[in-house]
Amino acid sequence: MNQVLFDTITSHKHRAFRTTELPDLSAEYAAKGLAPRARMSDRFVRLMNAETPRILEGQKIVFLRTVKKPYDCFTEAEWADIKSKHFVHELGYISNICPDHGFLLKTGLLAAKDFADEYGRADIDALLGLVDRYRAEALRQGRDDVAAVLERVPAHPAETFREALQFFRIVHYALWAEGNYHNTVGRFDKWMWPYLKADLDAGRITEDEAYELLLDFFLSFNIDSDLYNGIQQGDNGQSMMLGGDDGAGGEIWNLLTELCLRASGELKLIDPKINLRVTKNTPLSVYEEGTKLTKVGLGFPQYSNDSTVIPALVKLGYAPEDAADYTVAACWEFIIPGKGMEIANIGAMSYPLAVDRAFHTSLKTSASFEDFVQAVEGEIRHEVDEIISKVRGVWFMPSPFLDLLYGGRDISKGNVYNNFGIHGTGISSAADSLAAIKKYVFDEKRITPDEYLAAVDSDFENAPELLHLLRYETPKVGMGNEEADRWLVRLTEAFHAAVDGRKNERGGIWRAGTGSAMFYLWHAAEIGASPDGRRKNEPFAANYSPSLFAKIDDPVGIVKSFTAPDLKKVCNGGPLTLEFDSSIFAQPENCSKVAALVRYFVQCGGHQLQLNAVNRDALLDAQKHPEKYERLIVRIWGWSAYFVELDRGFQDHVIRRQEYGV
Hints:
Layout: H1 3-10, H2 26-32, H3 36-50, H4 76-85, E1 87-88, H5 101-107, H6 109-112, H7 118-140, H8 144-152, H9 161-178, E2 186-187, H10 188-191, H11 193-202, H12 207-220, E3 239-243, H13 255-267, E4 273-278, H14 284-295, E5 302-305, H15 306-315, H16 320-323, E6 327-328, E7 334-335, E8 343-350, H17 351-361, H18 369-390, E9 394-395, H19 400-404, E10 420-425, H20 427-443, H21 449-457, H22 464-473, H23 482-499, E11 510-512, H24 519-522, H25 555-562, E12 576-581, H26 588-603, E13 608-614, H27 616-624, E14 633-635, E15 640-642, H28 648-656, E16 659-660
Parallel strand pairs: 1-9, 2-3, 3-4, 4-5, 8-10, 10-11, 12-13, 12-16
Antiparallel strand pairs: 5-13, 6-7, 14-15
């Protein structure tokens, strides 16, 4: 590894090169009445022209942002007008999709001019102008190796492994510079492997040389990430997918797959975020390789189970060959490279809110527990209806450069797949609430509806015994308890039924999911205490996981519980998330035990799984002495971050999660 380059990037010394700032162009654009596409191209061209080439010591894969984050293309008044007429998702710029990176690598930017419009051609010229300046700087520094690569790419198709890596870096740089965000890498060991294999077969490169290039390439994901949009630092969507269906009846597992896992484990950085596709037939050795990354505390790989996901996507209407080629968006949502323009995180449904509404409006009038459950299901339908009703006239900022990766098609208007996904938040709290209500109100009649309502509405201030009973003595999902798990099943079925068969305005469908994103904090703040014993202002569990106060010793019980539902019906994405005490990895045999647990989850029909290795004492100390823990990594919801860079609420949530043993 280039230690000097590593130290420069991890110490953030390279950020000193960011000395240029573009002026606010939005007022100028508004005065000229420029169309959105023209604005995007003009800003991109100006940014490229303003960039100063910087090549760090020994750097092989170059390109570094020297212009600070540019201003928006629209004024606040213009955005207000757009939003009054359209549904604008997040920032209004295209995000969370995965282009077909292999397409442009095989095409080259000069040939792409043939299908680009005037704005795409202007972008190409501006970017190639910057490449020429980088080449000149490389020659000035005596870096003939860099200059030789830039003479070829990205103007022409990549022919070697190094050229392909450099080509991708420049395109990735350009997508973020254009204003797109959460730009994912896709199935890297599928589309990049032919370049490495050809080099190895021809004797142009050794395995060690390829690995050094890959380390440099991985470092490039961390150069400009402080400029990338996200809820928190680290939430930047630089997700890389490895493994999975090879399109010929087998699974991808090649030298590049192995080198990527090795590089990630050596660098111990949060980007790129590794995802690993597996099946019921994947050997334990693959899970053991993945567990090596868990052991060092990266919070990845995130596992996706082809045996569940591919059939689920086919059932949702994806062509079998496209379903087999799936990757993930920024966090976990299943999307198709090159063919998807899906908004897989367009909304989030709160299971506890549905229970809360039914609890306050229907508990006292329900003649049976089944009546009450049906009231909850009605509230789920109501929530889903509210989300869907708000999505009208979807509008995205057009992206001339991004369109080049789609053959020049205006991707903002849609693609082959235009599906919308809805997260499902707090399912464990909701299922635990149903189990408690059934047990104590309807079966044992131990609590009257009035008593239960009063206790919840007072945040259990006057009901400490009930609070203890609900939190610590009542069966909960994750314990492998069939009575509790049946409500996990019932809730996922209700969510699926609420979206099943519904079309969106772009001709796609609505997909239910098990992810939560940041809503595990936001949705929890919208309601008071819950019937499961969750108190006011306590967060829900992240994603598809047991309650934070469910005391569970055996992670096998969690797997049994959270694979009880038919997860093909809620396959927008959203992993079971588990924390392990990092000390367990001190025993070598425990790595194999964790790997076996992952394999068990997959064989039980799970869809996604992510693991965290944490030390609560270290996390608490990091809050007091952040300067001692600058590179302490934790998994948040679908991404990993440096703990000390997180807001306190996210830090506290990680600390509160239960740590499991094996």
